[in-house]
Structures are given as structure tokens and as C-alpha cells.
Design a protein that fits this description.
Shape: elongated
Distance between the termini: 62 Å
Strand content: under 5%
Order of helices and strands: HHHHHHH
Length: 105
């Protein structure tokens, strides 16, 4: 490894050694594009199955495959796709963390 770095330093210069090359293609192809991510958001608006009050990531995973949005997807992939689009809750909604502790006592 040291040999290659030294050789690159001599041939290409200091800046080339410190910077990385951009990949032409990503290491893993994206499962969800913008259209499919929007369909995941819409799938969460359907009535939940199995008598549940909320959607879980695993239920959404099964629903996405059932609706043939994608052939397969993991619950963590769906979670990342949803996390990119869901806004963080406002502090007014969350409240102050110490207020809930004071209310208990």
C-alpha cells in the first residue's frame, strides 16, 4: 500500500494522493427512485391491516411488495426512504422533556 501511495505521489502529485476518485456508478443500485418513494408515502395512507393502529416498517415492507412497487425491499431500506421525506416534529409538539417527568410526580 505504501508503495502505491508513494508511486502516485511521484507520478500525479500531492493533491491526487489526498483526494479520492469519484465512482462512475454507485456500489449498490438504488431500489427506490423519487416515484417509488412517493408511492411508499401513499401506501402509508391506506388503512392498516391486522387491526393495528399504525403502520410498522415490516407491514409497509409487505404492502410495498404486495402493491408491486418493488420486487423486494427490507424494512430498513423503507425506513431510510421515509426518513428522507418526513419532517422533524416541531418542539411545540414534543414539549419540554422535563415537563413529563414533573407531571408524574
Amino acid at each position: 500500500m505504501v508503495y502505491r501511495v508513494r508511486k502516485q505521489l511521484v507520478e500525479e502529485g500531492f493533491e491526487a494522493v489526498l483526494s479520492r476518485k469519484e465512482r462512475a456508478t454507485p456500489a449498490v443500485a438504488r431500489i427506490f427512485d423519487g416515484e417509488k418513494e412517493a408511492k411508499i408515502d401513499c401506501a402509508g395512507l391506506f388503512q392498516t391491516s391486522q387491526g393495528r393502529a399504525r403502520w410498522t416498517l415490516r407491514l409497509l415492507e409487505k404492502k410495498v411488495v404486495e402493491l408491486q412497487i418493488v420486487d423486494h425491499a427490507s424494512d430498513s431500506t423503507i425506513g431510510r426512504a421515509l426518513k428522507k421525506h418526513s419532517p422533524a416534529p416541531s418542539p411545540a409538539v414534543l414539549g419540554h422533556p422535563a415537563e413529563s417527568q414533573m407531571a408524574r410526580s
